[in-house]
Design a protein that fits this description.
Strand content: 15-25%
Structural class: alpha+beta
Largest sheet: 6 strands, antiparallel
Helix content: 25-40%
Number of helices: 22
Shape: globular
Number of strands: 25
């Protein structure tokens, strides 16, 4: 007997040793090369980066996996219990493996051998964490190798991490369908709720998804989804998470999905894309798409909406002036049954950029209008009154004006008297439902001209609105920041500012008459023209800027100021980086962007303080740490100081002063005059205090307008992406200025006018505007001219130059690329009554 027991003991010992050795071999074999589980202690799952507008509303998200990370402490206890009941009821008791579950699954799998059924699993939450985080490459394989590796890693993870940390990783990492990673994102995507707002039934539905998210999607298989949810509710009751009555009530609830409300999301595609590019440049793609950045931007949703509406309206208005280019397509309805027109229309793809417009098919044309059919199956009409704009587009022609100057004439066909002159049966067109009218539509076409609008805060440089084109869907090219265009006359305020800095005043008289300049050996003669053939003669500089007179501007630079100081001023204000020494640059022959021009005008609006445009106020990482703040000013008196109704602390402004504030104000005063009696007179309809400058480039290639108040700067331009003439007289005043008027009328609605602040050291002198002479009682055309303290209406530049900001001119040798100037002129010629020969430039 003893020998028998000895043999039994020996056999058991040998089996145990062999089993131990075998286990060690298996653990060694499958455990070698496994991922480092210790990394999970510091693991941060990829989470969504969110971009917020200035009022806190969300307007863009970027992520590889749309996940919202929620710490375990912030997850409601009931949500945790629901997932444990559904996935791993013994989570807090087992060491990483559920041995009873493994035995049960083994018995079931042995009974199913030979069948095609998928083997039953017994994975714990810890094993799922190991699979999803460390074995993602073989996560979909149902193999013993994967299971053994999961088990090894599960033991290691349990020894390295707390149960709460493991559960936190699981709940935030799991994929729950519909692009949702983590339970918080799923709660938003399925029910538009936060975790603490979920009902028992909703939490149970989410807890049932990890097994097979697509299979249990109620949109695809409602019965399976409800059955799975009810099973989870039963498990919750069995585990004591809920009562019997709560379980019955929850099972009676239908699964009702509720997507996030789109009206809470701001639409600002061009702005969002510009922010995205900036973030990638600064932090890289990985930080943006997985790092969970929180970005507070400068966007003002109200102004952005106005900006988008204004630009679309302005481009459509210009486009309509130049005629109807025809239907999108034409289909032959002769062989089509009347009831099948809808199927024909369904094959037509919507062109990009139509927005709320709809594609329609012309079904009938009669004397009163056009009957159309829509993709929805509805029918409507386009009345004749909505077709009269659609005169036939005709190619532009070249001709010469009275002075022999070549101009581009845009032509359109004769007036529309009958609908058949525009449309025929079978035409596929774009239409828009008329407001307050049922089934009545207007005819539309997507403009081929483009443009942009930007609005800025001149005190901070914050970009409040940015519309980079007619439609982001049709073209992601941002014409605010990426389009290099000639600024035309919109650059003139900085030319005149150079003169103000060198002692000139708005009352200084300079001749507006024809001028020709020899450019140098082999470069010919430069003979610029005003927009019209009219010239003002000898008038104050104020008139030259208000009415945008090219001859006066060129003479001012060539004979009195010099191109080199003008180039420095343009570069200093950031309009261009390196300005060629060519006199045509003084009237906008270089290239710049709308953003750079608007920033320069913002520095005029704020009195000459240097600005850097910014689209972002603050960037924080996933933990709330500030990575970037646009406002870097430090308030030493603000730290650890309770508010006891004391006076607010003063924060020092260390920004560079770009020019004498008095010179800046003189330019602003002159641009106010452009609204009162200059190129921007149309803006008088606003009844607001505004400074405005229009601009048009050679052959009307580009139309610009910039407007500012003490607190708002708005700039716009309209042009073709592939430069071509807009048409004779289609310049800043006619094309771009109406956009500014539309924008300001809505943006400033209800906001009282605020006058521009007059800096110290200035005086207002009564002056006859057209002569620059002192005004006497009973004179007409009298204004209050802004002069520096030492200036008089008759003073020249040498008598009133600003010691703080003007510097003596350097002596230098003119090159063939630089127009020589005569700085020996100490003062311009004396004022005299001008020859009133016309209205001058309109732009």
């Amino acid at each position: 007997m003893i020998r028998f027991f000895t043999w039994i003991f020996t056999l058991v010992f040998i089996v145990a040793v062999a089993g131990s050795i075998g286990t060690l071999v298996v653990l060694y074999y499958f455990g070698r090369g496994l991922p480092d589980y210790a990394q999970l202690a510091k693991y941060e799952p990829p989470v969504v980066s969110r971009i917020y507008a200035g009022d806190g509303r969300l307007f863009a998200e970027y992520a590889t996996q749309k996940r919202v990370f929620v710490p375990i402490e912030a997850i409601p206890r009931r949500v945790i219990q629901t997932f444990l009941a559904a996935e791993d009821k013994n989570f807090y008791e087992h060491p990483g493996l559920d041995f009873f579950g493994i035995i049960r699954a083994s018995i079931v799998n042995l009974s199913q051998m030979g069948s095609k059924k998928r083997p039953m699993g017994a994975s714990t939450i810890t094993q799922q964490v190991a699979k999803n985080f460390l074995l993602s490459g073989i996560a979909t394989q149902a193999s013993f190798e994967r299971k053994i590796k999961e088990a090894i890693l599960a033991f290691r993870i349990e020894n390295a991490l707390s149960k709460d940390r493991i559960l936190e990783l699981y709940i935030n990492e799991i994929f729950l369908g519909s692009g949702s990673y983590g339970v918080a994102a799923a709660a938003l995507n399925y029910f538009n709720k936060s975790l603490d707002e979920l009902t028992i039934a909703e939490a149970a539905f989410l807890a049932g998804l990890p097994k097979a998210p697509s299979k249990y999607n109620p949109k695809n298989n409602y019965a399976a989804a409800k059955s799975r949810r009810d099973w989870v509710i039963t498990r919750m009751y069995e585990e004591g998470v809920i009562t019997r009555d709560e379980a019955l009530t929850a099972k009676a609830e239908p699964i009702v999905l509720k997507r996030p409300n789109p009206t809470r999301v701001v639409k600002a595609d061009y702005f969002a894309e510009e922010v995205r590019r900036n973030l990638i440049y600064k932090y890289g793609e990985s930080s943006l798409y997985t790092g969970g950045l929180t970005v507070r931007t400068t966007l003002d949703p109200h102004m952005q909406k106005i900006s988008d509406w204004t630009l679309r309206k302005g481009l459509i208005t210009y486009d309509r002036r130049h005629g109807w280019r025809g239907a999108l397509y034409h289909v032959d309805l002769a062989d089509t049954k009347p009831e099948t027109w809808q199927s024909v229309l369904a094959t037509i793809m919507n062109p990009p950029g139509i927005g709320r417009w709809q594609v329609a098919l012309v079904l009938k044309v009669d004397d009163n209008g056009v009957k159309i059919g829509l993709k929805s199956g509805e029918e409507g009409t386009i009345p004749l009154s909505e077709l009269t704009w659609a005169r036939t587009y005709m190619p532009p022609t070249k001709k010469k004006d009275e002075d022999g100057k070549e101009i581009i004439q845009i032509n359109i066909g004769p007036p529309i008297t009958h609908p058949r002159e525009v449309l025929t049966v079978g035409d596929v067109v774009l239409v828009d439902l008329l407001q307050e009218k049922q089934k009545t539509y207007s005819l539309q076409q997507i403009p081929i001209v483009s443009g942009a609008i930007i609005a800025m805060d001149p005190h901070t440089g914050r970009v409040l609105a940015m519309s980079g084109g007619f439609s982001f869907e049709a073209s992601q090219f941002n014409r605010v920041t990426q389009a290099l265009r000639q600024p035309g006359s919109s650059i003139k305020p900085f030319v005149y500012l150079t003169a103000m800095e060198r002692g000139f005043s708005p009352a200084t008289v300079v001749s507006d008459s024809p001028i020709s300049i020899a450019l140098g050996r082999g470069l010919g003669i430069y003979s610029p023209k005003n927009v019209t053939s009219n010239y003002y003669g000898r008038v104050p500089l104020r008139i030259g800027l208000q009415k945008s007179l090219n001859m006066m501007t060129i003479r001012l630079v060539h004979e009195y100021v010099g191109m080199k100081p003008v180039a420095r001023m343009i570069e200093k204000f950031g309009i261009m980086d390196r300005v060629p020494m060519q006199i045509a640059m003084a009237i906008g022959a270089g290239e710049t962007t709308l953003l750079r021009m608007a920033t320069a005008y913002s520095m005029l609006a704020n009195g000459g303080k240097r600005l850097e445009p910014t689209l972002i106020d603050r960037i924080q990482d996933r933990h709330g740490k500030t990575l970037y703040a646009a406002d870097t000013r430090i308030c030493a008196a603000c730290k650890n100081q309770p508010w006891l109704n004391q006076d607010p602390p003063l924060i020092e402004d260390h920004r560079e002063q770009m020019a004498d504030p008095r010179s800046i104000y003189q330019i602003t005063s002159m641009l106010e005059g452009a609204v009162r009696a200059g190129s921007a007179q149309r803006a008088q309809v606003l009844g607001k205090i505004l400074a405005i400058k229009t601009g048009t480039t050679n052959k009307e290639m580009d139309a610009w307008t910039f407007a500012y108040t003490p607190d708002l700067v708005v700039g716009t331009y309209v042009a073709y992406d592939n430069p071509q003439p807009l048409g004779h007289m289609e310049g800043g005043s006619r094309v771009a200025l109406p956009l500014i008027i539309d924008f300001m009328s809505k943006a400033l609605d209800g906001i009282p006018s605020k006058p521009f602040k007059i800096p110290p050291g200035m005086k207002l002198v009564r002056m006859k505007e057209m002569t620059g002479q002192s005004a006497q009682a009973g004179d007409y055309g009298v204004i209050y001219e802004a002069l520096k303290d030492k200036q008089t209406l008759r003073s020249g530049p040498s008598e009133s130059s600003s010691e703080s900001y003007s510097k003596p001119s350097e002596s230098y040798e003119p090159s063939y690329y630089e127009v020589p100037h005569r700085e020996s002129h100490s003062s311009p010629p004396p004022a005299e009554t001008p020859s009133m020969t016309g209205t001058g430039g309109l732009y």
